[in-house]
Write a structure and sequence with these properties.
The complex is a heterodimer of chains A (about 400) and B (about 100). Chain A has about 400 residues and is of the alpha/beta class. In chain A, about 40% of the residues lie in helices and about 20% in strands. Chain A has a 7-stranded mixed β-sheet with strand order 3-2-4-5-7-6-12, with helices on both faces. In chain A, strands 9-11-10-13-14-15 form a 6-stranded mixed β-sheet, with helices on both faces. In chain A, helix 10 (about 270-285) crosses helix 13. Chain A is globular. The N and C termini of chain A lie far apart (about 55 Å). Chain B is of the alpha+beta class. Chain B has a single domain (about 25-95), classed as Alpha-Beta Plaits. Helix content of chain B is about 10%, strand content about 20%. Chain B has 2 helices and 4 strands; from the N terminus they run E-H-E-E-H-E. Classes of the chains: A alpha/beta (about 400), B alpha+beta (about 100). The interface of A and B includes residues 97, 221 and 227 of A.
Chain lengths: ~400, ~100
């Protein structure tokens, strides 16, 4: 029987890791993911899992150790935030290019400078094109569920790519919520036995990892990687279907909320989607046809499906919790714009940058944006395409 | 050799054939070529030990010719060579001269 608990996001992901019982974990502490790994380390020390923890001196080394352990043939996990993910950056490409199904719990935090420890999406967005699968989570339940599903997706024999699951630092990682834990046996069976591909420790079949690939072959390997990426959405959906059978919870490539008959909508990631849904309900009560789309599988991004889901709207605001300096628009906006570009009839698209460095996203902010969207939908006129909200002038 | 298309490359570029580095002839990288002068060779085998590749060959415990398919011309052999009475048994010559 599933157990109803009151836990933080970090506790929930640590619990998912315990239930999957990986072979190896290499991590280096960084706020706000420190608490996740501290909890997991307690499980290891108390004999609750058989995982071997490798102590390392940096996140660069943590990801390097994960790559080695994964190539050796182990099921491998890690967790990090912000500067930690940034320090892993070059290794992230090596993990994905070598097709190693490592699972990384990313607790989203702003990047320095100025130094800040609170939640925004700059870290995950910085790593969005490094060949990893990214699943984003609104709350502790989704972070737990995504983590469990990430193993099945990453380790799928048609995929074999690393995956990171994202949740908002502090807002989710350190807030206690009501959620459900699945039974240990159920999670264990769902994750299944880890299957190895070309493990280094199989000395009967010696292999070499990391060869030099010159201009005569490099592009073929990148093209092959892109092809594997294109198969991910199908696997995500089939894993979600299996997950629904054990949990009763439905997952897709993205979540839509009151979107079908909507005229105006938000596109927003992670925890702020929850606040937005409440405000959308209030507007619906007033007769405003508002809705929301919350991406879950952010990499690879399901452009066609997202475009289909949004094309009927009159006005859409993409809310980005990360800026893209010099790119004019936030990263999520650029992806949504690309999704809608092929359509002749498409919604007017505006972009708001919010919540940087953990700045609160409040219902008033959602109200202001919905009012603006209603005005844009009515008049077709846009004052500013990109704006910062919740910032002092 | 016909090059493979992207559908046929090994996932993750993992090399599953042991010893296949032999097929990658790196001698073409060389700008300087070591030349062995046998009459100055005292058979110390330093060049054979120091070669970072396997480009110095030995036969029956004695110094044999260079394997130019793999010699990248680093010059370590020439540097380490003690020679005979001040005359080096290995000297570096510019390629193509």
């Amino acid at each position: 029987m599933p157990k109803i608990v009151a836990v933080t996001g970090n506790e929930a992901v640590a619990e998912a890791f315990r239930q999957v019982n990986p072979d190896v974990c290499a991590a280096y502490p960084i706020t706000p993911s420190t608490d996740l790994m501290q909890r997991f380390a307690s499980f290891v020390n108390n004999g609750k899992v058989k995982t071997e923890i490798i102590l390392v001196e940096s996140e660069h080394s943590a990801m390097s150790a994960c790559i080695g352990a994964s190539a050796a043939g182990g099921r491998v996990i890690t967790a990090t935030s912000s500067q930690g993910l940034a320090l892993m950056w070059e290794e992230l490409f090596i993990a994905s290019g070598t097709r190693l199904p490592i699972v990384l719990g990313l607790v989203n935090r702003a990047l320095s400078a100025p130094l800040n420890i609170h939640g925004d999406h700059s870290d995950g967005m910085g790593a969005r094109d490094c060949g990893w699968i990214q699943l984003w989570s609104e709350n502790a339940q989704e972070a737990y569920d995504n983590t469990i599903q990430a193993f099945r997706i990453a380790e799928h024999m048609d995929i074999r790519l690393p995956a990171m699951t994202c949740m908002d630092g502090f807002i989710i990682s350190h807030s206690i919520e009501r959620m459900e834990y699945l039974d240990d046996e159920v999670v264990k069976n769902f994750a299944g036995e880890f299957r190895t591909v070309n493990p280094l420790l199989d000395i009967e079949h010696p292999v070499s990892y990391g060869p030099l690939i010159l201009p005569d072959y490099y592009m073929e390997f990148r093209r092959a990687h892109a092809e594997v990426m294109s198969k991910v959405p199908e696997v995500v959906l089939s894993v979600a279907k299996d997950f629904e059978k054990i949990s009763g919870r439905k997952y897709s490539l993205f979540e839509t909320y009151r979107l079908e008959d909507a005229e105006i909508a938000f596109v927003i990631l992670n925890s702020a989607a929850g606040t937005s849904k409440d405000v959308i309900d209030e507007f619906r009560n007033k007769g405003v046809k508002a809705g929301l789309l919350k991406p879950r599988l952010y990499r690879p991004f399901p452009y066609e499906e997202v475009g289909e889901a949004l094309k009927h709207l009159k006005a859409v605001c993409v809310l980005d919790r990360a800026d893209a300096f010099g790119a004019s628009y936030g990263p999520l906006y650029i992806d949504i714009a690309a999704s809608l570009y092929p359509y002749k009839e498409k919604p007017t698209l505006i972009n708001k940058i919010y919540g940087l460095g953990g700045r609160d996203y409040l219902p008033e902010h959602a109200e202001l944006v919905l009012n603006e969207l209603a005005e844009v939908a009515k008049t077709g006129r846009v004052k500013t395409f990109k704006e910062y909200i919740g910032v002092r002038e | 050799m016909k090059l493979k298309g992207w559908k046929d490359v090994k996932p993750g570029a993992v090399v599953t054939e042991a010893g296949s580095a032999l097929k990658f002839k790196t001698g073409s990288w060389r700008a300087f070529k070591p030349k062995w002068i046998e009459e100055n060779c005292i058979q110390c085998m330093f060049c054979w030990i120091y070669c970072p590749d396997m480009a110095v060959k030995a036969k029956d415990g004695k110094r044999a010719e260079f394997d130019y398919d793999y010699c990248k011309g680093c010059g370590i052999c020439a540097l380490e060579c003690p020679g005979k009475k001040g005359n080096k048994a290995i000297v570096m010559e510019e390629e193509g001269k």
